[in-house]
Inverse folding.
């Protein structure tokens, strides 16, 4: 049985707990201190930060987090230049950006990733939700996002990546027909 906990802010100890999962799941940012200073501390300070954690009997097995993305940020700007201008104009800025989702390999395939994703975006105030992921449609994460209603909007900022988007629960009054 997995327990999902969602928070809008984090304590110092959370970085240590999250780091162990991040290291096990993601190959980027191998240096603990650099990850902490360049990624975690910056991201957790962003407006709209939200973290979902999944706990099993053995402890933390997965996490997902995001924040309110805006123009001028490191991901938003390069993506603006590769997406179709109309897509970029209507989707980027003020969106909720899913930055990271990871589940320990030993805990995968039991619905935890889906529970984390659902908990992370549930009740968000943002009208537009965005993420970047692999261009491989057979990838587990891509399949998960597609099955949760995310659609490919165009190429991503990195090689072999795409941007996926989803409308939030709160709809813009001017685009109620889409
Ligand atoms: C993506 C990830 C979070 C999924 O976690 P998970 O707990 O295994 O996911 P779930 O068990 O909730 O599965 C949800 C859906 O994902 C897809 N999926 C999961 N594992 C899959 C696999 N091995 N092959 C294909 N699709 C898979 C399926 O659509 C699945 O739904 P279904 O069970 O109804 O078929 C996990 O594989 C992971 O941490 N991967 C490495 C990190 C990563 O790629 N993160 C995303 C970066 S954008």
């Amino acid at each position: 049985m997995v327990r999902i906990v969602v928070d809008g802010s984090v304590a110092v100890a959370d970085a240590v707990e999250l780091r162990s999962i991040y290291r096990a799941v993601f190959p980027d940012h191998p240096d603990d201190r650099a990850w902490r200073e360049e990624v975690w501390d910056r991201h957790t300070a962003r407006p709209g930060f939200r973290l979902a954690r999944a706990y099993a009997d053995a402890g933390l097995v997965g996490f997902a987090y995001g924040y309110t993305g805006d123009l001028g940020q490191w991901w938003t700007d390069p993506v603006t230049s590769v997406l179709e201008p109309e897509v970029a104009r209507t989707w980027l800025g003020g969106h909720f950006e899913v930055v990271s989702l990871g589940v320990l390999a030993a805990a995968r395939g039991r619905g935890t990733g889906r529970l984390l994703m659902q908990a992370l975006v549930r009740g968000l105030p943002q009208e537009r939700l965005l993420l970047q992921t692999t261009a491989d449609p057979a990838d587990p994460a891509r399949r998960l996002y597609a099955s949760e209603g995310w659609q490919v909007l165009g190429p991503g900022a990195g090689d072999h990546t795409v941007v996926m988007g989803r409308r939030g629960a709160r709809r813009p009054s001017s685009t109620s027909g889409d």
